[in-house]
Automatic annotation (TrEMBL):
Its cofactor is Fe(2+); Zn(2+); Mn(2+). It is found in: Nucleus. It comes from Nicotiana sylvestris. CDD domains: MPP_Dbr1_N. It comes from the Eukaryota. This is Lariat debranching enzyme isoform X2. One of its GO terms (biological process) is mRNA splicing, via spliceosome. GO terms for molecular function: metal ion binding; protein dimerization activity; RNA lariat debranching enzyme activity. GO terms for cellular component: nucleus. Residues 553-583 are annotated as: Disordered. Belongs to the lariat debranching enzyme family. Keywords: Hydrolase, Iron, Manganese, Metal-binding, mRNA processing, Nucleus, Zinc. Residues 569-579 have a biased composition (Acidic residues).
């Protein structure tokens, strides 16, 4: 069986498939399966883009929607895992695994499946210690933190994979297993990525759960991506024991090593996807404790016997067959002839990558133009300036002058809209200034959000219309809910968090004026301090020495309990801007080392 392995897809299915089809023709081979190691970006429509963890200016539909809609069909069976740049709302629908599109199968957040007689396992996401022991607590609609945290690997999913006993042939992870660099050409890796050296020395480059899975499962092959470079290693598990061939691949860009073709021995029989009996039995056994809150799974609540689960799954597979269910669309697909959802203007006219294509195809919707003119009228109240922008719009539509240069045409899809206007918009200065203003606007309110508590706005003297009894009831309920939430999270959150306290702060700035004792209603005894404490709206950013010392005294007299402290590391992850740019199909001369000899 000949299997193609791809690193980070970044939604560019068209070019990857075209490259493999050309490779088949040039090398006179047949590819049976494509495996993708994450950042697949299964974006069905504009709504999915809101859950895509990528810089706003790089969020684009790419080409997955064509395969989701049926406009195109994948030329090879494709299996993928999730990375850290995904439309997580769709992948959460397929948490256990399933068809993301015809011929394109998602392994789930953790999963094992068979292709012919080859057993393939996978773990989606990347490792972050502060989320590892939490449950899958994220709920739609996702906020900006949820968009990042939902793809962080969870202990529950790793625990299920560690229960696998039967041999695994291929395993996929987005993260590299920590310590894998010791088993390959480290000097060559550091020549490519010299900034890896410190993390390698500290033992923080990669995923600890992935390393644990590598030691337990010992697959014949392990493929990863994420770090955007090609790296091979050979892991010898014991002196005379089995070994694992590890290969990490790059992102999908011209001139990058993002593809590799390997040949694996396989038995006779059709090369089709089939459910894995052992994995389904493990899933059934632990499904009752799937953690859908912030608390980690409680495995003491698992009461099903492993052999009973195997027998149950075996009977079901004999009854219905072992093939996965057929693909079913679960959301409307992107329609390029109506690129603006619900007739709302999102800067479509002033986005050269969208405008010129749709203008040539005569697919611009009337609502788009209405939205554009409404936007001009709203943002530019000066009628004389509106007329100047209208005159310059004609130059832009005809792509005259600098706007028609070959570099400007290429840049329509390769550059972010703001960068394109800054480079090529000098002949239409008024339109240029307006376009940059529009394309720089955010499309979400998240940047302006605060704590949208019920107390923040309505419980003020100006706006409060509630009766005092109702207000007291709300405070009572909110306060007790807060206590309950903190109690439930006690096993995963470190209650002693003193890192951000500046003990000299009050000497420099003085203590802020305190209004906590002011009563909401005079003579009723309910103060704004009570309301703020219950709602957590007015918690201090910096502590003061008095409160710090009191906290330390309380800590010193308390009894320590045995628990795992969570490293509240920064949730920021490096975003490599060029990883989102569109890529071109690989040229023939790049096929030299693509096929494994």
């Amino acid at each position: 069986m000949r299997i193609a392995v791809e690193g980070c897809m970044h939604g560019d299915l068209d070019n990857v498939y075209a490259t493999l089809l050309q490779l088949q023709e040039v090398e006179n081979i047949k590819i049976d399966l494509l495996l993708c190691c994450g950042d697949f970006q299964a974006v069905r429509n504009e709504k999915d883009l809101e859950s895509l963890n990528a810089p706003l200016k790089y969020r684009s539909m790419n080409s997955f929607w064509k395969y989701y809609s049926g406009e195109k069909v994948a030329p090879f069976p494709t299996i993928f895992i999730g990375g850290n740049h995904e439309a997580s709302n769709y992948l959460w629908e397929l948490y256990y695994g399933g068809w993301a599109a015809p011929q394109i199968y998602f392994l789930g957040f953790a999963g094992v499946i068979k292709f012919g007689n080859i057993r393939i396992g996978g773990l989606s996401g990347i490792y972050k210690s502060h989320d590892y022991n939490r449950g899958h607590y994220e709920k739609l609609p996702y906020n900006q933190r949820d968009i990042r945290s939902i793809y962080h690997v969870r202990e529950y999913d790793v625990h299920k994979l560690l229960e696998v006993e039967e041999p695994i042939d291929i395993f996929l992870s987005h993260d590299w297993p920590v310590g894998i660099t010791d088993c390959g050409n480290l000097k060559a890796l550091l020549r490519q990525k010299p900034f890896f050296e410190q993390e390698i020395q500290e033992g923080t480059l990669g995923s600890r759960p992935a390393a644990e899975l590598l030691a337990k499962l010992r697959p014949s092959y392990w493929f990863s991506a994420h770090l955007h470079c090609k790296f091979a290693a050979l892991v010898q598990h014991e002196k005379d024991g089995p070994s694992t061939k590890f290969l990490a691949l790059d992102k999908c860009l011209p001139g990058r090593k993002f593809l590799q073709v390997i040949e694996i021995e396989s038995g006779p029989g059709p090369h089709e996807l089939q459910f894995d009996e052992e994995w389904l039995a493990i899933t059934r056994k632990y499904n009752a404790v799937l953690p859908l809150t912030i608390r980690r799974a409680n495995y003491s609540d698992v009461h099903l016997d492993t052999e009973q689960c195997h027998q149950f799954v075996r009977n079901k597979l004999q009854t219905r067959g072992s093939k996965p269910f057929e693909f079913v669309q679960t959301a409307p697909c992107y329609n390029p002839s109506h690129p603006v959802a619900n007739g709302v203007f999102h800067g479509h006219i002033l986005n050269p990558g969208l405008f010129y294509t749709n203008n040539e195809n005569k697919t611009l919707d009337l609502n788009v133009w209405k939205g554009y003119h409404a936007c001009v009228a709203k943002l530019v109240p000066d009628e004389a300036m509106q007329d100047k922008i209208g005159q310059e719009l004609g130059v832009y539509m005809q792509a005259d002058g600098i706007l028609g240069l070959a570099s400007a045409i290429r840049g329509r899809t390769k550059l972010a809209p703001v960068e394109w206007w800054m480079q090529f918009g000098y002949e239409v200065p008024n339109l240029q200034q307006f376009a940059i203003r529009v394309q720089s606007l955010t499309c979400r309110s998240s940047g302006c959000e605060r704590n949208w508590s019920v107390y923040e706005h309505i419980h003020t003297k100006k706006r409060n219309k509630l009766e005092l009894k109702k207000l007291n009831d709300l405070v009572f309920v909110k306060y007790n809910r807060t206590l309950a939430r903190r109690y439930k999270a006690r096993n995963i959150i470190d209650p002693i968090l003193l890192d951000n306290i500046d003990e000299a702060n009050e000497w420099l700035t003085g203590a802020p004026e305190n209004h906590e004792e002011e009563e909401v209603f005079e003579g009723e005894g309910l103060t704004f301090g009570h309301v703020a404490m219950a709602s957590e709206v007015e918690e201090s950013v910096y502590g003061f020495r008095g409160s710090t010392l009191r906290s330390k005294e309380r800590v010193s007299t308390s009894t320590c309990t045995s628990r795992t402290l969570i490293n509240e590391a920064s949730d920021e992850e490096e975003d490599d801007d060029d990883q989102y740019n569109n890529s071109n199909m690989m040229t023939l001369q790049e096929f030299g080392d693509l096929v494994e000899e």
